[in-house]
Amino acid sequence: MSPDVTIHPLERAAAFYRSGDLDAAEWHCAQLLRAAPGPGHAEAWHLLGAIALGRGQAERSRGCFEQAVGLAPENAVFVSTLGEVHLDAGRVRDAEACFRRATSLDPNYERGHNNLGRALHARGDLDAARASFEEAVRLNPRYATALNNLGAVLRALGDHRQSIARFEEALAARPDYPEAHFNLGCSLQARGELAAAAERFREAIRLKPDYARALFQLGQVLEESRRDYDALRCYEAAARLQPGDAEMHRRLGIHLVLKKDWPAALSALERAVAIEPDEPVPFASLVCARHQVCDWRTYDSDLERLWADAERQLAAGKATAVTPFQALGLPWPLSRQLAVARSYSDGLAHHLGVHGLASVASRSARPPAASGGRIRIGYLSGDFSDHPIAHLIHGLFGRHDRGRFEVFAYSFGPPDGSPYRRRIAAECEHFEEVSSLTAVDLARRIAADGIDILVDLMGHTGVNRLATLAMRPAPVQVSFLGMLGTTGADFIDYLITDPVTTPANFAPWFTERFVTLPHSYLVAEPEPASESAAGGDATRGARGMSRRGYGLPDPDDGFVFCCFNSAYKFEPRTFDAWMRILSQVPGGVLWLCSAGPVVEENLRREASARGVDPGRLVFAPFVPRPEHLRRHAAADLFLDTLLYNAAATAALSLLAGVPVLTCPGETFASRVGASIVGAVGLPELVARDVADYERTAVELAHDPDRLDRLRTRLATLRTTAPPFDPPRFVRNLERAYLAIWGRHASGEPPAAIEVTESDG
Q1: How do residues 391-401 score in pLDDT, each as one tens digit?
Q2: In the chain, what are the domains?
C-alpha cells in the first residue's frame, strides 16, 4: 500500500482538527479506515477520539481511545489520553491505572506524570500528587500546566508561599494562562492580600470573560473589602454563568440578605437548596434568611434539620453549617452554642497551624515599665462607626486613666465620618486604621506595638479578625461586648461579663474565664451633642403630642408597646407572647421598626393567625438616628425579645426614658436585658417567666399612673444609675484589666475574676 494512502489522509485529518473543522477531520479519518481496514490505524482511532471529545461525546471518545490503546498498547500517549477521559468522567481509579501505565511505558513523558498527579489530587493523596507534579516539572521546568497544578496542591497542603512561587513560574512560562492567574489570586486571598488577589482575578477575567469561578472569587474579595455593590455585580454574573452551582447562588443570596433585598435573596437561596437539597450549608443559609424575614411557616422542622445536620458535621470534625452568630438566635441550649462556636474557632486555629501561621506573632515579653509603668490595652473592631457597639462605648476610650493605661484602637471598619468614630479616633491615644492589613500583618503589628491585653469587640460577628487573635499577638486576649455568647476559642482567655448575664453555673459552657463587673457589663454612653434628642417629658400628655405623626393612637385611645430590635431577634415564642398581650389590651398597638414589605407581610400574617388584627402592628420607617431618638417619646413601654435580648437598643430606649420590660432565659443573649434593666434600678421590669412578662405588660397598659411613676423614676435613674455613669463603668473595667494583668504578670493561668468597686 502506498504511504500516501495511509499517512497523508491522517495528516490532512489532523490539520483539519487543529483548524477546528471537526467534520472534515472526521471524514478524512473515516475515509482512511474504510480504505485500509485492519489493525494498523491506532493514530486514526486516537484522532477520532479527540474529535468526539471536542464535540462533548464522552462515551464515544472513550470507545475510540480504547480502540487506539488496543491497537497500540505500548503507546504511552494513547494510554494517558484514555486515562484523561476516565478522569473527566470521575472514574479516578481507572484514570490512575492508565497514568501509572503510561509513565511506566515512558518515564520521561511529562504529561503522563502531570496527569497522574491530577488523579492523585482528585482522590486526596496530596503528597503523592505533589511528587508527580514535581517530576513533570523536573522533566520540563517551563511546563506551565504542571506548575499550576503543583501550586494548587501546595496550596491545599497549606504552603501558600511555595504555591505562589509556582503560580508565578507558570505565568512566566505562559502569561496568558487564566487558570494560573486565578489560582495565584486564591493563594493571595488566603494570605489576606486582598488587593493583590483582586488584581489576579481581574486579569483571569480579562483573559477569559466567562470565567465564573474568577468572578465569584473576586466578589468575595470585594465583599471582604466592603465594596458591596461591586461584589454584588460579580456574584450575579457568576451565578448567571453557572446556573447549576449551588455555592454561587448561596453566596449571592447571603450578599442580598446583607443588602436587605429580601425577594431576590430568598430566590437565590431557594435556588441553592434546590440544586443541593441534602447539603447542610445552603439549607442553613436559607433558614437564616427565613428567620430574618420572620417567615416561620417551617420553623420547627427547620430547627430539627439544622441540629441533625450540625450533629453529623460535628461528628465528622467539621465546622457546622449554622454559624456561631446564627446559633445565638436559635432556641438552643448553651451546650449547643458552645459546640457550634468551638467548631469554628478550632477550625480556624487548625487552618492557621496547617499554614504555619499559628505562632507568627510571638507573645510580648515587654514589661509594662517599658511604657512608663502603663498597661497597653488594644481594642480590635470593625465597628468603630455608626454601629450599635460604637453607640455604647464611643466615650469609653477617652475616659481611661492615661497614667495607668496606654490605649490603642485597631479599626478595620468603614471610615464613615460619624460623630461616634470621630470621638473614638480623637480620644484614643493611638487610633490605628488597619483595614488594609492582612490577618498576619495585623498580628505582627499588634505584637510590635507591645499590646499587653488585646480586647476583641466582635467575636464571630460581621467581618471579624478572629484569625489575628488565633495567632496570639498579645499575651492576654479578652472578648467583650460584641459576641453575646462564647467564642469557643482557646486563644481567648477572658470574657467581660456580669453575674446576671452569665451566672457561675454557665461557666462549663464557655471556653473563656468570666470577669464579672459589678452592676452590668453594658454601659449606656450619652449620645454626642449633635445627635442627642432624648430626655423629653415623661408624662402621657407629652407622649400624646408626638404620636399623631407616627400613625399611633392618642394616649386615651390606645397603649403603644414598642420593640425596636432587628427583626432577626423575633421568633414564634416571643411573638406569641406579644399577641397574647395585645389581645388583653384593647386599642393597643405594637410599634416595630420596618425591615421592608416582606417582613411586614409575614408579621401581619402571623398576627392574623393568632387572632390579632394585623392593623395593630405599626411599622416605623427608617429615619436618621436623631429622629429615631425623638420618636421614642411616642412609646409607652418597650417589650424585649425573649430569645435574643436588646442590648444597645435597650440602652437607647432607657436613655430616651422608655421603660424596658424583659424576661431572662438560660443563655447569655437572653439575659442581657435583665442585666441592664436590673442595674438601672427597675427590678420590677425583670419578669420571672413568660407568664409574669405578659401579666406585667398588661397591668402597666391598664394602669397609666403606675407607668408614669415608672417613667418618672427612670428619668432620675438615667442620670445616676451605674449603666448611665460611664466614668464609673470605666473605673470598674480598669479594675478588671488590672486583675487580669496581675494574674498574668505573676505567672498564674487565667481564672474567674470578680470585680468589686472596693478593689484598688
Answers
A1: 999 999 999 99
A2: 3-205 (1.25.40.10), 279-354 (1.25.40.10), 368-524+728-754 (3.40.50.11380), 540-717 (3.40.50.2000)
